[in-house]
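TODO from last week: model ABC transporter ATP-binding protein.
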Amino acid sequence: MEEALLKVSGVSLNFGGIRALTDVSFDVRKGEVFSIIGPNGAGKTSMLNCISGRYRPSAGTITFKGRDITRLKPNKRADLGIGRTFQNLALFGHMSVLDNIMVGRHHLLKNNFITGSIHWLTGARTEELENRREIEQIIDFLEIQHVRKATAGTLSYGLRKRVELARAVALKPDLILLDEPMAGMNLEEKEDMARYILDLNEEWGITVVMIEHDMGVVMDISNRVMVLDFGKKLAAGTPEEVLANEHVKRAYLGEVDEVPPGETQVA
C-alpha cells in the first residue's frame, strides 16, 4: 500500500471572504481505507467536493493516478474511476432500486442512439447483459435483493444508504468517496455498513476515502486518519497516532488540559 493513488497538494478553497480549506496536503495510498475526521464545519465535505469535482479549489492541485484532475469536470473524474456517496442522500426517489443502481453504469455504456438501434451488429445487447450481470452481483453483495424492484423513496433510511453505496460501486471505481456513510443508522446497520466497506476494500480492491463521525468505526477500519479543524490539517497518521495527538484531543475529542490542584477550570 505504498503507491499514492490520490495526492492533494496545498489545496485551499474560498467562498467569498470565507475560507473553507487552507493549504491542505495529503495522499491516499492504493488499497487503503483513509478517513477524514473533524468537528462540524471543519471542511471535510468541502474536501470531498474538491476531489470529486463539485468544487474547484482556489489554490493547490489534485492528482489521481498521476494525472492532474484539478480542473476536470465531475463526469470526467467518474470516467477515471472516482465514485462517491453524499451526506444527504441523492437518490432518485421515484425510481426503483434497480434503476437507481443502473444510473451508476451510465458512463460505462459504449452504445449511443445509432448503435443502440442496431445492437445486433455492434454488441450493444451483449454490453447490456454484462452490465446487468454486474449490477446483480452488487445487489447480492449489499443484500438488497428483497428491495430491488421497490421505489427508492419508500425505503428505510438505512436501506437507502445501501442503495446509494450500490450506485457508487456500479460505477466500477478505483477510489470511492463516502460522506458519512453511517450517519443516522442504528448499531446493527452501522456494523453491516462497516463490513460492506471493508469487503469492498479488501475483496473488491476499492480504495476508500471516508468521512465519519463515529470514532469507534473510524478507528476500527481505517488504515490512516487525517484530522481537519477550521479548514486546516491538524494531524494525520495511523488511528493510534491520531488518538494520541494532544492537539486532536483538545480540538476534536473535547479533552482539556489538566487543571492544577486548587484551581478551577473556566468554562
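Done. Confidence is low (pLDDT under 50) at residues 257-267.
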